[in-house]
TrEMBL record:
Domain NTP pyrophosphohydrolase MazG-like: 43-116
The enzyme's E.C. designation: 3.6.1.8
Designated name of the protein: Nucleoside triphosphate pyrophosphohydrolase
Family note: Belongs to the nucleoside triphosphate pyrophosphohydrolase family.
UniProt entry tagged with the keyword Ribosomal protein: no
Domain of life: Bacteria
Organism: Flavimaricola marinus
Chain's gene name: mazG
Keywords assigned by UniProt, alphabetized: Hydrolase
One of the GO biological process terms: dGTP catabolic process
GO molecular function annotation: ATP diphosphatase activity
Keyword Ligase: no
Amino acid sequence: MPNPADPIIHDDSGGPEHQILRLRHIMACLRDPDNGCPWDIEQDFASIAPYTIEEAYEVADAIARADWPELEGELGDLLLQTIYHTQMGEEAGHFSLASVARSISDKMVTRHPHVFGPESRDKSAEQQTADWEKIKAAERAGKAQGRTLDGVAMGLPALTRAVKLQKRAARVGFDWPDISQVLAKVQEEAAELVEARSDLTHDDVVEEFGDLMFVMANLARHMGVDPEAALRATNAKFTRRFKGIEDELARRGKRPAESDLDEMDAIWNQIRAADKLGKT
């Protein structure tokens, strides 16, 4: 039975093995039905999954900001998610931390025969990527995932999943060979969205908007752009520029609610022009 007074829980010395064991004991105590935390006891895989996704994004955010002290903490939060899920897996008899670690270790060894096996390392990164995909395809076949799109996780961000679906389809030849055809499809889907907005139901608008987003993801793939990364960068740019609007309005003794679109748009254009000048 987990013991909150166990010395290991309060011992912050020691190396990685000790700290992982310490974290496992902490989580076991939190989940203890008799003496644990009521909130932690109530959780299950489904309720914790959104936190896992959130923590992964916070890791990516710290990396994007090159905030290494923050990254240390975010990686700890993400590690906690793994420990949380494995604790629940052990309680239900599904798997353990050892089996989870064994599974990923076996996978990494199998997928890198040029490092851990007899294959030569003398090949390009592109060839290694192609070989990786072949190995993954064989693994999917072994799991009875015989269809082209099997195994693309439903829980991925929608843009990321769209790109992965399109990559899978492209491997079997279902893809436009020329980017001009993708651009033409973008124009077609945009026109259909405008038509839906004017003449059709809201559900039709939602469907057409999804079609346009899907083909935009395809355009990103053909141009070698990560659409999630591109949109994150634009979000960051928008945030920075809007803060610039707020700063300029504050200099004028105003808040955004006391301004209007014309004034804010003029400030936006000044900031945008300064950005472009800074790139030259």
